[in-house]
Amino acid sequence: MSVLVNKDSKIIVQGFTGSEGTFHAEQMIDYGTNVVGGVTPGKGGQEHLGKPVFNTVSEAVEKVGADTTIIFVPPAFAADAIMEAADAGIKVIITITEGIPVADMVKAYDYVNDKDCRLIGPNCPGVITPGEAKVGIMPGFVFKKGNVGIVSKSGTLTYEAADQVVKQGLGITTAIGIGGDPIIGTTTKEAVELLMNDEETECIVMIGEIGGQLEADAARWVKENGNKKPVVGFIAGETAPKGRTMGHAGAIVGGADDTAEAKKRIMSECGIHVVNSPAEIGKKVAEVLG
């Protein structure tokens, strides 16, 4: 089992022929991901990386049965790309683009909420189910198949956690990079819930950062649902000065519960195994899995 993406996912790339889309699509294809084509308006009918190019997402759905998309569209047009994918019936919309205007994302978020689909991101590294599908920009070689799920706001810490888990002789079911923007499609809680309901996932690594309530909400949900599986948690940004945006647009301390310290306290109270350094994630996972 896996969540969101697997070997049967039929993936298209929006922004397929651009430099980012080309580079990462090539990496995804090399990994063995089932990329069935891509979308670049005005270039329909051409071939790129040995795959068909379509003018619209609905055409890609109709011609090659696409059900998953990864978006490498520039920020000014990315919200439209998200809404186009949702409108065409795509089930999983993974948005890599960083810097989408907040007003645009508000519209896209509301639009997607009325459709039968799931939005991951924006400003995220994507989703990987090792050995099956890499739908993102993560280094595939770091991930090995196993029974640990990862949910992370940070791209680089996703890879770091995976590397440590693998070095402990374990592996990953699915790693979900949810993105670091203020408005994202799938919250920490929703991603944790997906992995909690996945039969193969026996432990979940939850990586958060300062700003917002996502990790606290997820921790409370885990507790309310009886701590069915062990969760190892880490919060980045311990030393960040208050009121300053750090790296991600969503990483800004607004209130007392937004600090790393407060989040760690809430997570601990909810039965999550909190580590103080990303260097401890792998060891803690091995310890809780016994």
Automatic annotation (TrEMBL):
<dbReference type="GO" id="GO:0004775">
    <property type="term" value="F:succinate-CoA ligase (ADP-forming) activity"/>
</dbReference>
<keyword id="KW-0436">Ligase</keyword>
<dbReference type="InterPro" id="IPR033847">
    <property type="entry name" value="Citrt_syn/SCS-alpha_CS"/>
</dbReference>
<dbReference type="InterPro" id="IPR003781">
    <property type="entry name" value="CoA-bd"/>
</dbReference>
<protein>
    <recommendedName>
        <fullName>Succinate--CoA ligase [ADP-forming] subunit alpha</fullName>
        <ecNumber>6.2.1.5</ecNumber>
    </recommendedName>
</protein>
<dbReference type="InterPro" id="IPR036291">
    <property type="entry name" value="NAD(P)-bd_dom_sf"/>
</dbReference>
<dbReference type="InterPro" id="IPR005811">
    <property type="entry name" value="SUCC_ACL_C"/>
</dbReference>
<dbReference type="GO" id="GO:0004776">
    <property type="term" value="F:succinate-CoA ligase (GDP-forming) activity"/>
</dbReference>
<feature type="binding site">
    <location>
        <position position="159"/>
    </location>
    <ligand>
        <name>substrate</name>
    </ligand>
</feature>
<dbReference type="GO" id="GO:0006099">
    <property type="term" value="P:tricarboxylic acid cycle"/>
</dbReference>
<dbReference type="Pfam" id="PF00549">
    <property type="entry name" value="Ligase_CoA"/>
</dbReference>
<dbReference type="InterPro" id="IPR017440">
    <property type="entry name" value="Cit_synth/succinyl-CoA_lig_AS"/>
</dbReference>
<keyword id="KW-0547">Nucleotide-binding</keyword>
<dbReference type="GO" id="GO:0000166">
    <property type="term" value="F:nucleotide binding"/>
</dbReference>
<feature type="binding site">
    <location>
        <begin position="96"/>
        <end position="98"/>
    </location>
    <ligand>
        <name>CoA</name>
    </ligand>
</feature>
<keyword id="KW-0816">Tricarboxylic acid cycle</keyword>
<feature type="domain" description="CoA-binding">
    <location>
        <begin position="4"/>
        <end position="100"/>
    </location>
</feature>
<comment type="pathway">
    <text>Carbohydrate metabolism; tricarboxylic acid cycle; succinate from succinyl-CoA (ligase route): step 1/1.</text>
</comment>
<comment type="subunit">
    <text>Heterotetramer of two alpha and two beta subunits.</text>
</comment>
<feature type="binding site">
    <location>
        <position position="43"/>
    </location>
    <ligand>
        <name>CoA</name>
    </ligand>
</feature>
<feature type="binding site">
    <location>
        <begin position="17"/>
        <end position="20"/>
    </location>
    <ligand>
        <name>CoA</name>
    </ligand>
</feature>
<comment type="similarity">
    <text>Belongs to the succinate/malate CoA ligase alpha subunit family.</text>
</comment>
<dbReference type="GO" id="GO:0009361">
    <property type="term" value="C:succinate-CoA ligase complex (ADP-forming)"/>
</dbReference>
<dbReference type="Pfam" id="PF02629">
    <property type="entry name" value="CoA_binding"/>
</dbReference>
<comment type="function">
    <text>Succinyl-CoA synthetase functions in the citric acid cycle (TCA), coupling the hydrolysis of succinyl-CoA to the synthesis of either ATP or GTP and thus represents the only step of substrate-level phosphorylation in the TCA. The alpha subunit of the enzyme binds the substrates coenzyme A and phosphate, while succinate binding and nucleotide specificity is provided by the beta subunit.</text>
</comment>
<dbReference type="InterPro" id="IPR005810">
    <property type="entry name" value="CoA_lig_alpha"/>
</dbReference>
<dbReference type="InterPro" id="IPR016102">
    <property type="entry name" value="Succinyl-CoA_synth-like"/>
</dbReference>
<feature type="active site" description="Tele-phosphohistidine intermediate">
    <location>
        <position position="248"/>
    </location>
</feature>
